[in-house]
Amino acid sequence: MAKRGRPTRAQASTKALKGVDIDAVDPLTVLRQIASDTSAPASSRLAAAKALLAHDGRKKDDGDGAEHDRISARALKLLKGGKS
C-alpha cells in the first residue's frame, strides 16, 4: 500500500526542480528574488538580504573571484538537495 500524506522534502524538491537546469541558475539572482518576495517568510528574506550584503560588501577587485565560486558551488549543492 502506498504511503499517504505529504511527500518528503526530497520528493517535493525533486518534483519542483524537474526540468530545471541547475547549472544555469545564478545564486545571486535567486537571493535577490527571495529578498524581494513579500510572500516569503521574513526570516528567509532577512537571510537572503544578509547574504547579498555580505557579498556586495567585498571589494570587486580583490582576488580571483574564488569567493563567488565558493558561494555558487554551495548554492548549487543546496539546490541539488545537498548532494555533490
Structural class: mainly alpha
Order of helices and strands: HHHH
Number of helices: 4
Strand content: under 5%
Shape: globular
> Whole-number radius of gyration?
16 Å
| Main beta-sheet annotation | none
In the predicted model, the low-confidence regions spanning at least 5 consecutive residues are none
Provide the residue-averaged pLDDT: 82
Quote the distance from N terminus to C terminus.
33 Å
Helix content: 55-70%
Secondary structure: number of strands: 0
Task: Outline the fold blueprint.
Blueprint: H1 9-17, H2 27-36, H3 42-56, H4 66-79
Helix pairs in contact: 2-3
What would you say this structure looks like, in words?
This protein has 84 residues and is an all-alpha fold. The protein has a domain at 22-79. Helix content is 57%, strand content 0%. 0% of the residues are buried.
List keywords for this structure.
84 residues, globular, 4 helices
